[in-house]
Automatic annotation (TrEMBL):
<protein>
    <submittedName>
        <fullName>Class I SAM-dependent methyltransferase</fullName>
        <ecNumber>2.1.1.-</ecNumber>
    </submittedName>
</protein>
<feature type="domain" description="Methyltransferase type 11">
    <location>
        <begin position="73"/>
        <end position="171"/>
    </location>
</feature>
<keyword id="KW-0808">Transferase</keyword>
<dbReference type="GO" id="GO:0008168">
    <property type="term" value="F:methyltransferase activity"/>
</dbReference>
<dbReference type="InterPro" id="IPR050447">
    <property type="entry name" value="Erg6_SMT_methyltransf"/>
</dbReference>
<dbReference type="InterPro" id="IPR013216">
    <property type="entry name" value="Methyltransf_11"/>
</dbReference>
<dbReference type="InterPro" id="IPR029063">
    <property type="entry name" value="SAM-dependent_MTases_sf"/>
</dbReference>
<dbReference type="GO" id="GO:0032259">
    <property type="term" value="P:methylation"/>
</dbReference>
<keyword id="KW-0489">Methyltransferase</keyword>
<dbReference type="Pfam" id="PF08241">
    <property type="entry name" value="Methyltransf_11"/>
</dbReference>
């Protein structure tokens, strides 16, 4: 099937990044294919990854705050584990879209395996060029994917269009310090890794930017919460695991092909200059809507 994509697009780069053997192997080996960070309580072992992943997904469900049966769009669903948790635990009817056909196929398999396919549907699409009619969803969410967008304004416009008036948008996304307010090695690291990992919007999302764009797209911003410290234990584990191979890749001049390993090490080293944020916003009701 031909994928309908938006005009301003880096779709090819995103697909290439997720198809890299290093990327596929890393996510598969460490997180069983899930592609987001975990959230920890202070008493948790940093190595209890699965528990932390599910807790982060529960935070999504709690922030969406929808009744069972609500129609929800997962933009950039990956292999569908977030959608699976939201259906299984919160009773939401989730439709996930993703650029990679392999992710969509895996998401469908996992839904069937969990006996949740009555609540879960998936399609191979670009969230910047959605086919759904206006006001199709009660809520929309992104989990660590909007950073890939080539045109975040266009994506937010799509989310606004497909949400019903009063509907909720929740985005778990990264934001960073302005380049002028960090040391040169940190600024260089962001520029390089955001390029290699096809994350132009992370390069652009300095503190406050996503909040401003969300408001400009017509949403009422309810809040932005910095939960970085709750995810640091997992990032630190990845940095510890990646330190030795990262040095090897560097020495062998294979940096570009080991972007996940390098990201773990470098994003941990420079953690003072970026945040993991939860953005919550509602589509404003207009008179008569
Ligand atoms: C870091 S992964 C997160 C996956 C999933 N949300 C999770 O938490 O496991 C980012 C995902 O967004 C998808 N993605 C990136 N840009 C997209 C776009 N324009 N449309 C649909 N999916 C996109 C990627 O294919 C990838 O599966």
């Amino acid at each position: 099937m031909v994928l309908k994509v938006s005009n301003a697009s880096n779709v090819r780069e995103v697909i290439r990044y997720y198809r890299q053997p290093g990327s596929r192997l890393g996510y598969r080996l460490f997180l069983n294919g899930t592609k987001h960070f975990g959230f920890y309580r202070s008493t948790d072992s940093p190595w209890a990854w699965s528990k932390a992943l599910r807790r982060m997904e529960d935070r999504m469900g709690e922030t969406l705050a929808q009744p069972a049966g609500a129609r929800v769009l997962d933009a950039g669903c990956g292999v569908g584990d977030v959608a699976g948790r939201l259906a299984g635990r919160f009773g939401l009817r989730v439709h996930g879209v993703d650029l990679l056909d392999a992710h969509v196929a895996q998401a469908r398999r996992r839904a069937r395996r969990r006996n949740l396919d009555h609540l879960l549907t998936f399609s191979h699409s670009d969230y910047a060029a959605l086919d759904f009619p206006d006001e199709s969803f009660d809520a929309v969410y992104t989990m660590e994917t909007l950073v890939h967008a080539a045109d975040a304004e266009a994506v937010l416009k799509q989310f606004h269009r497909v949400l019903r008036p009063g509907g909720r948008l929740v985005m778990f996304e990264y934001a960073r310090e302005a380049a002028t307010r960090m040391p040169t090695p940190a600024a260089d690291m962001f520029r390089q890794l955001n390029d290699w990992a096809a994350m132009p919007s992370f390069q652009r999302f300095t503190y406050g930017t996503l909040e401003r764009l969300t408001a400009e797209a017509g949403f009422s911003v309810r809040g932005v919460e910095d939960i970085s410290r709750g995810m640091w234990p997992m990032l630190r584990c990845f940095a510890v695991i990646g330190t030795l191979p990262g040095a090897g890749f560097r020495a062998a001049r294979l940096r570009r092909h080991s972007v996940n390993t390098l990201s773990a090490v470098e994003f941990w080293r420079h953690r003072a200059f970026w945040r993991y944020e939860i953005h919550t916003a509602d589509k404003v009701r207009t008179a008569g809507s």
